[in-house]
Sequence to fold (367 residues):
Amino acid sequence: MHIEAAVLRKINEPLVLEHVDMDKPRGREIVVRTVATGVCHSDLHVIEGISRYPTDRPFVLGHEGAGIVEAVGPDVTYVQVGDHVVACLSGFCGTCPQCLDGHPNVCTNNGEIIARPTADVPRLTQEGGLVRQFGGIGSYAEKMLMHENMVVKIDKDIPFDRAALVGCGVLTGVGAALRSSGLRAGQTVAVFGAGGVGLSIIQGAKIGGARQIIAVDQFDSKLEMAKSVGATHTVNATQDDPVKAVRSLTKGLGVDHAFEAVGLSKLCRMAIESLAVRGTATLVGVLPPEANIEFNWLAIRPECKVQTSRMGSNQFRTDIPNYLEFYRQGKLDLDSMISKRGRLSDINEAFRAMKAGEVARSVLMFD
Ligand SMILES: [Zn+2]
Ligand SMILES: [Zn+2]
Fold:
């Protein structure tokens, strides 16, 4: 079957709307008709050639997708045609040591969940040649062909545009605060970067009972957003030294938890240097593969910890419905996270707005 998709052909070039051939679902694969997709920084990393993904073939990016199951392979048991689902990059095998230990977000055996074995007919092709899918999803397309272990069912009253965000950015941010960091109610928090992920960390920290949440960014518009979703203090990094500002806002102590939400070495260093004694820095942003993080030995307080967080340490089949329940209860603001809506043809404009720091999230709608 033909589908329309936004295809990356060359690094640093605009995506092009093209027809791509999609195979039938085999085994445990499903076809989902895309209704909404968020536009995420990780896609931009691929376009800019600073990701670990190969760009030797045409590439359908996009992974923050939500939609309706349209067809299922013969071995599918989890979903039925008509189910509403959200896709998540954390496809899991369910049988490796990490999955069995309760950490399916770092599954070590999901190669064939993400893509078919290379000897098989590819899921997506153009004139018989392989077209890659970002993370086994490829949501910048009318339809997504993927493994059933890459989706979670959601209630049908949840709007697709809000649901899509929870598949990546919100899951990553809220989970970093509630699952990865070890935050306890009453603690203090600083969040470096107030884009889609940073705003989600702020919301997670608020839900988790943080008593002080300091947002750091270079754009006043993002700091305003940060305040509206739960930041108690803001620091504009172009005006004040963020580390000094965080220390002065915490009576010289530093914060119990600092989060890096962009993927910059400089911000990782600031997060580490902002910690209180026994504080924890949780690095959420994705740095370029060869990046180094350097800090002075004296700058880090006694018994501090530095850790990474992968997709909010999620167990997404339970976390995504839980976070959507927070949304329903008014505890998690997804409505104001969506700065802009557009169509698939607006994809390149969405990346421009992201680079300019104009948006928390753009969402593309297909209906
Ligand atoms: Zn993402
Ligand atoms: Zn696994």
Q: What stands out?
A: The domain at 173-309 is CATH 3.40.50.720 (Rossmann fold). Residues 316-328 form the longest helix (13 residues). The chain is about 25% helix and 25% strand. The longest strand covers residues 29-38.
